[in-house]
Amino acid sequence: MPDLSDRDVPDRGDDAGRGAGGPPEESDAERRRRRARFLRELAEARALRDRVQPRRAKTARLRHAMRMRTFRW
């Protein structure tokens, strides 16, 4: 059970992933920029996958349409 040793590590605060202690507005803006860039790259990767594997993309579209038809509002 080597995973139990992780419990001995003290919990880092909320600002563990943020920059060098800048104002919260700047770190929030940076987080939004990083998130926007990630979402753009994700959409680009999905578009590339759809172009490279058209049969799988078509199947995924049909599956999604079926889920949406059977979903109750």
Largest sheet: none
H/E order of the elements?
Answer: HH
Measured distance between first and last alpha carbons: 46 Å
Percent of residues in helices comes to 55-70%
| Morphology call | flat
Tally of helical runs = 2
Count the strands?
0
Please tell me the overall pLDDT. 78
- Give the low-pLDDT segments: none
Rg value? 21 Å
Question: Strand portion, in percent?
Answer: under 5%
Structural class: mainly alpha
Polypeptide structure, described:
This protein has 73 residues and is mainly α. Helix content is 63%, strand content 0%. The chain has helices at 24-52, 54-70. The N and C termini lie far apart (46 Å). The model has no long low-confidence stretch (mean pLDDT 78).
How would you summarize the topology of this molecule?
Elements: H1 24-52, H2 54-70
Helix pairs in contact: 1-2
Summarize the structure.
With about 70 residues, the chain is mainly α.
